[in-house]
Specification:
By secondary structure, the chain is mainly alpha-helical. The protein has one domain. It has three helices and two strands; from the N terminus they run ααββα. A two-stranded antiparallel sheet has the order 1-2. α1 crosses α2. The longest helix is centred in the N-terminal third of the chain and has 9 residues. It is globular. Pfam families: HTH_17 (PF12728). GO terms for molecular function: DNA binding. This is Helix-turn-helix domain-containing protein.
Length: 55
């Protein structure tokens, strides 16, 4: 899925998602200039408890 789809799936803004991607917090691959994310990898990431709440 692309950035827009992933942000909607995670219910976060695209800006927040981009920040998490740059920091390596979310599993994804960059293809050219665009990020690609796997729904399965995102579900696994969410289930693993690696989600960190912002203060």
């Amino acid at each position: 899925m692309n950035l827009e789809e992933a942000a909607e799936f995670l219910r976060i803004s695209q800006t927040t998602l981009k920040k998490l991607l740059r920091e390596g917090e979310i599993p994804a691959r960059k293809v050219g200039r665009e990020w690609r994310l796997s729904r399965q990898a995102l579900l696994k990431w969410l289930e693993s408890g690696q989600v960190q709440k912002e203060d």
